[in-house]
Amino acid sequence: MTSSGCRTDIQGYQVFPLRICYQFMINYCYIILDRFSGEAAIVDPAWDLEALQGKLQEMGARPTMILLTHSHYDHVNLVAPLVREYDPKVILSRQERDYYQFSCDNLFAAEHLDQIRLGETLINCLLTPGHTTGSMCYLLSHSLFTGDTVFVEGCGICTTEGGSASGMFESIQRIKRTVEPHVSVFPGHCYGRAPGCSLASVMEHNIYFHLESKRQFVDFRMRKGQTNSFAFK
């Protein structure tokens, strides 16, 4: 596990990205710290419980919330031990919970445009299906946590159960309409650039933000002959 720095914005919260490796998987999970209350939210906790707990202890943070962008195992596998240890609320979209029958203690189903408070920090829920049927992004004043919906370099695959390239197109259009260009993007995986790029930069360099036709987008995302799941161009 390595820490990738932090960002503090004018609203009084900090974001701590954690790069965590397990076999061939590299995930980013995040700790959001509300500086006024000391409360923390953990986004997509994965793989290395000891490292995550060590970071929380170093920060002196109280984890009161877990934010899940979707229910794939590499984004949720630390939920149960964290709930046992800290008793936080666990937030997941209702669509994701119902479709995949995901369950855990302290689970709260969120709807599109729900607002959640972490101390003094406001978190907005954006339903962004495509990678899964109920993928959700979490929008703060200067930060967007995208899971496997949007990467800096591309977007998530749409071939797993409940995935939809058409849904992914609509979700990216929603992000373009909803999120301000200055907002920093924090995805679940990175493939060259570090997390925290501005949405303006993502929109400039990410090919999926340039495809204005749904048919063109779907054909490109689902094209044959891709060398691997991360062949974005």
TrEMBL record:
This protein's UniProt keywords: Hydrolase, Metal-binding, Zinc
Gene3D superfamilies on file: Ribonuclease Z/Hydroxyacylglutathione hydrolase-like
Taxonomic superkingdom: Bacteria
Stored InterPro entries: MBL_Glyoxalase_II (IPR051453), Metallo-B-lactamas (IPR001279), RibonucZ/Hydroxyglut_hydro (IPR036866)
Cofactor(s) required for function per UniProt: Zn(2+)
UniProt entry tagged with the keyword Protease: no
Ranges of residues in domain Metallo-beta-lactamase: 26-189
UniProt KW Amino-acid biosynthesis keyword: no
Protein name as annotated: Beta-lactamase domain protein
Lineage, top ranks: Bacteria, Pseudomonadati, Thermodesulfobacteriota, Desulfuromonadia, Geobacterales
UniProt organism field: Geotalea uraniireducens (strain Rf4) (Geobacter uraniireducens)
GO molecular function annotations of the record: hydrolase activity; metal ion binding
Xref: SMART domains: Lactamase_B
